[in-house]
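Hey all, quick one. A colleague (J.T.) asked me to put the zinc ion job into the tracker so the inputs and the structure tokens live in one place instead of scattered across chat threads. No bug as far as I know, just bookkeeping. Sequence used:
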Amino acid sequence: MTFSAFAALATKQALVPFVYEPAPLAAADVEVEISHCGICHSDLHLIDDDWSSSSYPLVPGHEIVGRVVAAGDDCMLAVGQRVGIGWQRSACLECEPCRAGHENLCATQQATCVGHMGGFARRIRTDGRFVFALPEALDAAAAAPLLCAGVTVFAPLRRWGIVNGSRVGVIGLGGLGHLALRFLRAMGAHVTAFTSSPDKRDDALRLGADAVASSVSPREIRGLKNQLDFLLCTVPARLDWVTYLQALKPNGVLCLVGAPPGLLQIPAAQLLTGQRAICGSDIGSPAAIREMLAFAAEHAIGAQVETAPMSEVNAALQRVRDNRVRYRMVLTN
Ligand code: NAP
Ligand code: ZN
């Protein structure tokens, strides 16, 4: 038996059709016939080996929706069930973070498409304990990006106690950022969207922002001095962190989910004064994924997607690189 996929054979290369033999179906595994797979910016980081973690051939893709076609003896999922698969593939399930329900913080966790073949494919075999039943109310294409982008923005909003009336900034309106706006509107937060794309301003208001500012204008960011409880940064590039910290109220938090290159340079005084904090957030636990999917179904939240056939994966990847997608590219089989 073989699975058809698209793979990068070396760093920064275009993807090519690729066939591989899957590992035997283990007792906890499922085999899923993939209908949709979103393109996350992390797939570009992997293709480019930005994190020095990629191995080739590399089949990217970790925002997967499909139907179960086979289930191992110990797997709770049923053949025919519609499911979603995100970034995390497995964890030890025994360490302190795992036992506390923070499997996404397990030191031995594995990712769906790092050292394993991901979702730019017809089928995938993976650990069923990290595969999620999709609520019926969710459209498959709009739901696929929830599996990574969705939980990555939802989990920190829960962790940092964002509620009705919280004043929140979202930096970068791509796949992650636009979903953050939709979740935040449903949570009742007052939201300022920061974008480097002037043509996204109207969309930002429609998606859930109450105000819009330039993400790259220190003058506009300074205009929000001491106003925000929480800033969620989804941008994969360096920004003016010091000026952003000043937009936070005392005790405010700047949370990075985007992966900018290089070091963060922050004068200590910027953290001491006003007790502001800077932190990161890593996808979300399986429990957070389930809570996020239920919240999305309840509030009719999905991604705004562009779709393309899997065979056009390279053109689709280029649109993501060029920041032209509004707002998540989803490949279809
Ligand atoms: P995306 O769809 O490409 O969106 C990124 C957005 O950032 C762009 O749409 C753009 O928004 C803004 N941006 C890009 N380059 C910029 C620049 N040079 N200056 C200012 N703004 C810029 O990417 P994504 O899929 O949302 O992923 C974003 C980041 O999150 C990536 O680094 C990805 O690896 C990371 N990520 C992290 C996790 C985690 O667990 N922490 C999970 C998933 C993804 P505007 O046009 O509005 O400016
Ligand atoms: Zn992702």
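Adding what we noticed when we looked at it: The two ends are 19 Å apart (CA to CA). The mean pLDDT is 98.
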